[in-house]
Amino acid sequence: MQKGRTIIVAPNGARRGKDDHQQLPMTIEDMATCLAQCKGAGAAMAHMHIRDGQGKHSLDVGLNREWLVETRARFDSDMVIQLTTEAVGLYQPEEQMALVRGTEPEAVSLALRELRPNAAFEKDASRFFYELNERRIYVQYILYDAADLSLYFQMVNDKTLPNSGHHLLLVLGKYKKDMLSAPTDLLEFDIKRITSEGISWATCAFGEHEHQCLSAAMSLGGDVRVGFENNLMNLMGQCADNNAELVQQIAVMSQNMGLYINSAEDLRKNISCSFES
């Protein structure tokens, strides 16, 4: 069967809170309610930011482990739960690495530029990337621009980054004015090379044009990440009721394009195959 498209939901992010939207999950129970809705709408993976008692983004190992164990207990058969090491200006590479080592998630997202900010960090970053590969933790390398993608290719070519067990997230709009993305932002990335080398990839897009950006990505062979971390507006330009509404809109859009939507089982088969490449 031709590889389908995976819908990843990013329900909360690191910065938004209830003042932005009352349905943005800030607690374990909030997240459970959200994911129950999103799995029914078509999401196969959840990109989960853990919040502390004050609602702040946290890489605390104990707290992340608590959220991960509880969430996997409820949803493991229906969704792949992905933790994030994103620093958001608060954490250093060694703290990000400690999070993954202390939680052993099935999947994790990390910004390549944060773990390898310059050449002095490359040896430690490389050791960490290979460690995750050996543990069969599925890594999503977050890339914000063409320079990040060039660094990725350089590290793969230099064998400082393993050529298996991962995929890419191409972020649109993060550093643009008002964080407003457009489908043409995809042109900044070498999609042709990514595709020709058989690399699995996904896109997320900040702002109200999220849906158009994700539609363009799907047409080019990419998976998609959707949710309140990046955008609160539905296709009608109105505030979405919840994350599940945004997931469902993307699922319907995918089906209208004649694309198969991966289940969690499909995704795990793809993940397993990625470690054999």
UniProtKB/TrEMBL annotation:
Q: Which Gene3D superfamilies match?
A: Aldolase class I
Residue ranges of coiled coil: none
Keywords from the UniProt entry: Metal-binding, Transferase, Zinc
Which coenzymes or cofactors are required?
Answer: Zn(2+)
A GO MF label: metal ion binding
Q: What is its EC number?
A: 2.-.-.-
Question: Which InterPro entries does this UniProt record tie to the protein?
Answer: Aldolase_TIM, BKACE
UniProt key word Hydrolase: no
Query: What is this enzyme's class at the first EC digit?
Result: transferase
Q: What is this protein called?
A: 3-keto-5-aminohexanoate cleavage enzyme
State the organism of origin: Grimontia celer
- The gene is kce
